């Protein structure tokens, strides 16, 4: 059978490989402490599930979503949430677009914006979908290194002039996956000025905007002057409301870019289940104490893991946000070697940083969404196993 070259050149999706390793270990009867994929282990809040059940009993929701940008009440709920959370006023008719999860919107945006030979500016390390979607669109890729020394912010002045001339789309992610870094208003201002001067659209992936700690509340780029001409932001309800399997998200910002994305989507998908959109309204407009509770859960897990690792000689910075810990590997290991040693030696599953790009080499990522039993006890068990089985002195 003939397979498209673009697919043959695509490396395996990192989380598919994690799933394979987990299945292999469990087939051998091994107990794994799973810090792999960031899939929330808490249930979706009851009021959201109840809203879905009520909506699913309405036969109207069983039909195609022919609304284009999404149910009007969903788009209004997004606009109201943005006003409350960020102080940003959005027109729900022109500046809000429903997505089938953030991943779908991120991928389809590349197809809507990029032509073959255009350049996509990709953070490294970063979510693999930025790279793969841009490659599928036929674009050339330019990777923007992110380092601890720079606060995991790209140096826009270091991008070569010939690359800048061909660049049409820049992906950014703050709060940052996988590093946990947060961007401040000054960086957003400089990025918008750079994009305006060079006719570049910025896509800010904000899937983790509500997972923040120690008072470090992330900002929206749309709060900055000139942002609406150059920026769209993509959100997911997956991490905020523990709705990963529901596949619902939204894009907001520049109307022209949203119209292009909507046109692309209308040709490749048939919208989101209307009952899920109604449930999303309940999530966005209902009580938000569930989000605060979730932040507290992850912060306790973060602190247990980092304190435990420090106690055995592995010093890891505290992330300001996200549900991940970005840990520099001890001397003598590559990222892949450390991940394999943790898995085979201690039964602890973490993701090698190199899965997120060449600049992720030298790190492993621990997800705080720990599956199976009491998560805090499982984290303590993981630290105990690492202490007994793995050399971690830095």
Furnish the topology, listing elements before pairings:
Elements: H1 5-8, H2 14-27, E1 33-34, H3 46-56, H4 72-86, E2 96-99, H5 102-113, E3 119-124, H6 128-136, E4 140-145, H7 161-166, E5 167-173, H8 185-198, E6 201-205, E7 231-236, E8 249-253, H9 255-268, H10 274-285, H11 289-311, E9 324-328, H12 335-346, E10 348-349, E11 351-352, E12 363-367, H13 375-389
Parallel strand pairs: 1-10, 3-4, 3-5, 5-6, 6-7
Antiparallel strand pairs: 2-8, 7-8, 9-12, 11-12
Helix pairs in contact: 3-10, 4-10, 5-6, 5-9, 11-13
Can you characterise this structure?
By secondary structure, the chain is of the alpha/beta class. The protein folds into 2 domains: 5-44 and 289-389, Alpha-Beta Complex (Aspartate Aminotransferase, domain 1); 46-285, Aspartate Aminotransferase, domain 2. Helices cover 41% and strands 14% of the residues. The protein is built from 13 helices and 12 strands. The strands form 3 sheets. A 7-stranded mixed beta sheet has the order 2-8-7-6-5-3-4, with helices on both faces. The chain has a 3-stranded antiparallel beta sheet with strand order 9-12-11. α4 runs parallel beside α10 (274-285), α5 crosses α9 (255-268) and α11 (289-311) packs parallel to α13 (375-389). The longest helix has 23 residues, at 289-311. It is globular. The model has no long low-confidence stretch (mean pLDDT 95).
Head-to-tail CA distance between termini:
50 Å
Total individual domains? 2
Sheet with most strands: 7 strands, mixed
CATH superfamily of the largest domain: Type I PLP-dependent aspartate aminotransferase-like (Major domain)
Number of helices: 13
Which regions contain 5 or more consecutive residues with pLDDT less than 50? none
CATH level-3 fold name of the largest domain: Aspartate Aminotransferase, domain 2
Helix content: 40-55%
Radius of gyration: 21 Å
Backbone structural class: alpha/beta
What is the C-level CATH assignment of the largest domain? Alpha Beta
CATH architecture descriptor name of the largest domain: 3-Layer(aba) Sandwich
**What's the shape?**
globular
Strand content of the residues, in percent? Answer: 5-15%
The sequence of SSEs as H and E is HHEHHEHEHEHEHEEEHHHEHEEEH
What's the count of strands?
12
Strand order of the largest sheet: 2-8-7-6-5-3-4
Can you give the mean pLDDT? 95
